[in-house]
Write a structure and sequence with these properties.
Order of helices and strands: HEEEEEEHEEHHEEEEEEEEEEEEEEE
Helix content: under 10%
Number of strands: 23
Number of domains: 1
Strand order of the largest sheet: 2-4-5-7-8-9-10-11-12-13-14-18-19-21-22-23
CATH architecture: Beta Barrel
CATH topology: Porin
CATH class: Mainly Beta
Structural class: mainly beta
Largest sheet: 16 strands, antiparallel, barrel
CATH superfamily: Porin
Distance between the termini: 32 Å
């Protein structure tokens, strides 16, 4: 199936769904709840064509490398395949919200994500290890991530709350920025169509390993239009976050307007490098190639919703994040999922990322959603040293990946929602990296010039309960 046939088929299926909505009888109950305990799940599968890419990996989150923003630089040609997790990662979980009297509630959540095509829990660290020592053009999809085979690779926390005092939980949580992006990403963090769905760099405040914090305590409070979140973790040597971290989110919602500001400070964050930096069979020794950084981030995000006739609704989104990744003097530790690391480089001159995004979502009263997302990332020219503490100041003149560069992405999706349980979607995502962010792709030998592009067409369906 070529890309024109694929796109035509996808649009046809999505538009045809509009005539079937009224005839669909939903066999699923509104929720699978017993008291205050609710079981929920998502399965998302489809078909994708990519102008450049690598084959599916049954352990990698989402199965495919959906964008050109990747450290692996391992594109090998066009890909046409059954695919998964286009709009949302497939998952299963249990949510607890049980009143216990006097307005107090016991709350909790455990959730894990999996790849429905392979039946495996998402394990990004294992995907990297499996491609260690494999030549460019022969790899399967792989990259760093916070889900590394843990039984609960998303969240696992419990606590109590009361309207007048707020809510306090302890366990494994999404970082506040990772959570806030659900409100402010026009593409709802869709892995195939959103920068924030594919990459956890912004959600993790600079590193995808820090998108979820183990050993953390989270406090949240809402009063009228004002809401706030504060979170702290003391880290650990086996969690991808080796030292302490803290983050806060302050937001306000007035009628159709919602605005949030987030700050994060994380010490000793693990960053797994490209699989090209790993030897064959890197585990258990020497470990996955990595560097460790101290990350800071601040972000401002907003959206405004217009309520329109015929139950239509239009929401516009915009946001900005500034990230700095500085030297951290760690010689060892472990990534998420207890994967050993080999710290073979360190940051000398701070790496700076600036991230901008905007978009819109038009929701028709009929159930059809039209969504557009635009994303832009800039990287400065930075320097590194050998090992955990070397000060060689190796920069752009020696390694092109250290040069400044840019990433741009534009995506459009048609999503037809039959009801709360079923939807069909079709979309296209175009992304491009230039200069330092493109160095290392086939044919790109100079870090100060050059580019690599990728176009992904995908259609699919999602079931949720």
């Amino acid at each position: 199936m070529n890309k024109n046939q694929l796109f035509s088929t996808a649009i046809g299926l999505t538009l045809a769904a509009t005539s079937a909505r009224a005839e669909l009888k939903d066999p699923l109950p509104d929720s699978l709840s017993l008291g205050g305990v609710t079981l929920y799940a998502t399965i998302d599968v489809g078909y994708a064509y990519q102008s450049h890419g690598v084959p599916l990996n049954g352990q990698y989150s989402g199965g495919l490398e959906y964008q050109a923003f990747t450290l692996t630089r391992n594109f090998a040609g066009s890909v046409s395949t059954i695919a998964e997790s286009g709009l949302e990662f497939s998952k299963i979980g249990v949510h607890v919200d049980q009143p216990v009297g006097n307005d107090w509630r016991v709350v909790g959540r455990v959730e894990t994500r999996f790849n429905p095509l392979s039946g495996q829990l998402i394990n990004n660290c294992a995907a990297l290890a499996a491609n260690g020592g494999v030549k460019q053009g022969q790899q399967t999809a792989n990259a760093d991530g916070s889900a590394c085979g843990q039984f609960f690779n998303a969240q696992a926390y419990a606590g109590m709350g009361k309207s007048a005092f707020g809510q306090l939980t302890i366990g494994r949580h999404d970082a506040p920025m990772n959570e806030a992006l659900w409100l402010y990403d026009p593409q709802d963090r869709a892995p195939a169509f959103s920068f924030f769905g594919y990459s956890g760099v912004v959600g993790g405040g600079g590193s995808t390993e820090a998108a979820r914090w183990n050993n953390s305590v989270r406090y949240s409070f809402q009063s009228g239009p004002l809401r706030l979140t504060a979170m702290y973790s003391n880290g650990s040597q086996d969690s991808g976050l080796l030292s302490n971290a803290y983050s806060g989110d302050v937001g306000i919602a007035i009628q159709g307007l919602s605005v949030d500001g987030v700050y994060a400070n994380e010490k000793g964050v693990v960053n797994l490098r490209s699989s090209f930096n790993d030897p064959k069979d890197p585990l258990p020794s020497p470990g996955l190639a990595a560097y460790v950084s101290d990350d800071t981030m601040y972000s401002l995000m907003g959206r405004y919703t217009f309520e329109l006739p015929q139950k239509d609704r239009f929401t516009v989104y915009a946001g900005y994040s500034h990230i700095e990744k500085a030297h951290a003097d760690y010689s060892g530790g472990e990534a998420q999922g207890d994967y050993p690391i080999d710290v073979d480089i360190n940051i000398n001159r701070t790496l700076v990322l600036n991230v901008y995004w905007a978009g819109g979502r038009y929701e028709f009263g009929s159930g059809l959603n039209l969504v557009v997302g635009l994303y832009h990332v800039t990287q400065n020219s930075y320097t590194i040293g050998h090992g955990p503490s070397g000060t060689q100041g190796i920069g752009c003149a020696t390694s092109g990946t250290l040069c400044s560069g840019d990433f741009d992405e534009a995506s459009i999706v048609l999503d037809y929602v039959f009801n709360k349980h079923y939807d069909l979607y079709a979309g296209v995502n175009y992304s491009e990296v230039t200069d330092g962010l493109a160095f290392g792709f086939p044919g790109e030998k100079v870090g100060t010039s050059g580019s690599e592009t990728q176009t992904t067409f995908m259609f699919g369906g999602r079931v949720r309960f």
